[in-house]
């Protein structure tokens, strides 16, 4: 149970605290191994087929490396010192989740917008999105933040949470024999997601070497993206009850049913469609990436203009979703204590 307790503690810590940049970070180490392998393999394999093979090797090696290191921490460090193992595992879970950091970065954009500083808001936005930001206006910047927070709810919160929870349930069913899965599964997920973030682009440079990472990321995010959407709908349902405006919920459901597959990604549109319905607006649309215009259909039917305060609203919604996930964890923990 101590592994599960470390998971829950790390999850709660991320609710209150963002990442401390001066401390070593799991994702930075993963990123370094991805960059190093990419640099070496690009020199070794220059053809299109060679780059496809290189991308496959990058994925396999990184999954094996970081999956094994997570297993090593869970098995061997606990044998050296139980308290040390718990502290390290809790800290790793804290770094795996990204809600507080995402809120911090999105609020940097919010604060710049509030002061009317469009250059600073564009610069702050560029830190959390992949698109070009230098020509965006105030409303486009606000929409980009809303889209990013909605999409990253799945990548940065629900997906690692779901895989850690899955590892917990598997351990429970098999008499706690696979406790190491509680950490190993979310670390492997984080590795795949980081590879997609770094090399999973459709640009000329990455179209071949990043294909395996992009496809695998689509697969591992399939369930988390949909679970995220239903969690958001659950939260929005209660918001609509509290506000006595049930149309908020119905618009969210309608937008989800109609637009969840509009996005080029099979997963990103799941949460964005719900949020487009919630704000009764249009999200997404055409955008520039690396100086090239990428044509995209809009998500949502609404004509409401978003405003700066909606950045706070979307962060509050995701925090409420965070509480829902924590309640699920506490229920699972209670069941486990009862059974054991």
UniProtKB/TrEMBL annotation:
UniProt KW Transmembrane helix keyword: yes
Name any GO cellular component annotation. Answer: plasma membrane
A single GO BP term for this record reads: cobalamin biosynthetic process
Biochemical pathway: Cofactor biosynthesis; adenosylcobalamin biosynthesis
Bilayer topology? Multi-pass membrane protein
Q: What is its main location?
A: membrane
The question of whether Disulfide bond is a record keyword is answered with: no
Q: Which GO terms describe its molecular function?
A: ABC-type vitamin B12 transporter activity; threonine-phosphate decarboxylase activity
Sorted alphabetically, the keyword list is: Cell membrane, Cobalamin biosynthesis, Membrane, Transmembrane, Transmembrane helix
Where in the cell? Cell membrane
Annotated TM spans:
53-73, 79-98, 161-189, 223-242, 319-339
Q: Which family does it belong to?
A: Belongs to the CobD/CbiB family.
Q: What does this protein do?
A: Converts cobyric acid to cobinamide by the addition of aminopropanol on the F carboxylic group.
The record's annotation in HAMAP family points to:
CobD_CbiB (MF_00024)
What protein name is recorded for this chain? Cobalamin biosynthesis protein CobD
What is the scientific name of the source organism?
Lachnoanaerobaculum umeaense
Per the UniProt record, the lineage of the source organism begins with: Bacteria, Bacillati, Bacillota, Clostridia, Lachnospirales
């Amino acid at each position: 149970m101590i592994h599960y307790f470390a998971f829950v503690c790390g999850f709660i810590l991320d609710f209150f605290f963002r990442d401390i940049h001066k401390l070593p970070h799991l994702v930075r180490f993963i990123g370094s191994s991805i960059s190093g392998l990419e640099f070496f393999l690009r020199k070794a394999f220059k053809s299109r087929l060679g780059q496809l093979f290189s991308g496959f090797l990058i994925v396999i090696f990184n999954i094996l490396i970081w999956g094994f290191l997570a297993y090593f921490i869970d098995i061997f460090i606990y044998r050296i010192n139980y308290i040390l193992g718990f502290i390290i595992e809790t800290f790793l879970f804290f770094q795996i989740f990204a809600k507080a950091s995402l809120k911090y970065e999105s609020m940097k954009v919010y604060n710049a917008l509030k002061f009317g500083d469009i250059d600073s808001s564009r610069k702050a936005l560029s830190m959390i999105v992949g698109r070009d930001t230098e020509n965006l206006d105030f409303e486009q910047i606000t929409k980009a933040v809303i889209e990013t927070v909605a999409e990253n709810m799945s990548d940065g919160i629900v997906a690692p949470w779901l895989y850690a929870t899955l590892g917990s349930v598997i351990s429970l069913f098999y008499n706690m024999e696979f406790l190491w899965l509680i950490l190993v599964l979310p670390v492997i997920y984080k590795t795949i997601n980081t590879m997609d973030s770094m090399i999973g682009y459709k640009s000329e440079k990455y179209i071949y070497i990043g294909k395996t990472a992009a496809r695998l990321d689509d697969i591992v995010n399939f369930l988390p993206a949909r679970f995220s959407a239903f969690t958001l709908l659950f939260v929005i349902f209660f918001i609509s009850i509290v506000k006595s405006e049930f149309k908020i919920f119905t618009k969210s459901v309608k937008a989800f049913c109609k637009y969840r597959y509009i996005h080029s990604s099979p997963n990103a549109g799941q949460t964005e469609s719900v949020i487009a319905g919630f704000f009764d607006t249009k999200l997404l649309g055409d955008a520039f990436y690396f100086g090239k215009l990428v044509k995209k259909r809009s998500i949502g039917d609404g004509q409401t203009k978003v405003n700066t305060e909606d950045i706070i609203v979307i962060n509050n919604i995701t925090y409420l979703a965070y509480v829902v996930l924590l309640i699920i964890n506490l229920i699972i923990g209670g069941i486990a204590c009862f059974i054991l």
